[in-house]
Design brief:
By secondary structure, the protein is mainly alpha-helical. Helix content is 63%, strand content 9%. It starts with 5 loop residues before the first helix and ends with a helix.
Length: 141
């Protein structure tokens, strides 16, 4: 956890969480640890924070990308993120401006564009995945 400020470190301590959540189940404790670690990662890696709609869009895209199929702009706008199509399109644009998404044209159809994660997005997703592992490990110790 190098790089975390002292003010954040106490929040991330498993003993502090255990004391506050004495009657909480192990999965709840792990989830709480993950949320704290994820908040710390986001604070360290994203100079311009995501608004809730951007966050939901990025989460929905992450699930779609995990299935191994390319995602078109139209498919991204129709993902289950709870946003209207116009809001989804604006959030795709804002995520692109923040360097979290890129668009790649289809080789056969110039009208089709695919939404792809950038290296910056891959680093953030890797860090968040590491938070899940860390939260599970520390909550069980």
């Amino acid at each position: 956890m190098s790089g975390l400020s002292d003010s954040l470190w106490w929040v991330l301590q498993p003993t502090a969480l255990r004391q506050t959540m004495k009657t909480t189940s192990q999965p709840s404790l792990i989830y709480a640890r993950f949320l704290n670690l994820a908040a710390a990662v986001r604070g360290l890696t994203e100079p311009s924070a995501l608004d809730p709609a951007e966050d939901r869009m990025l989460q929905a895209l992450t699930v779609a990308w995990s299935k191994g199929q390319p995602v078109t702009v139209l498919e991204a706008m129709a993902l289950p993120h709870g946003l209207s199509q116009s809001t989804a399109h604006r959030r795709l644009t804002s995520l692109r401006k923040k360097g979290l998404l890129s668009l790649r044209g289809d080789e056969r159809d110039a009208r089709v564009r695919y939404v792809e994660a950038t290296d910056k997005t891959q680093r953030i997703l890797h860090q968040l995945g590491s938070c899940i592992i860390e939260a599970s490990r520390e909550a069980s110790s």
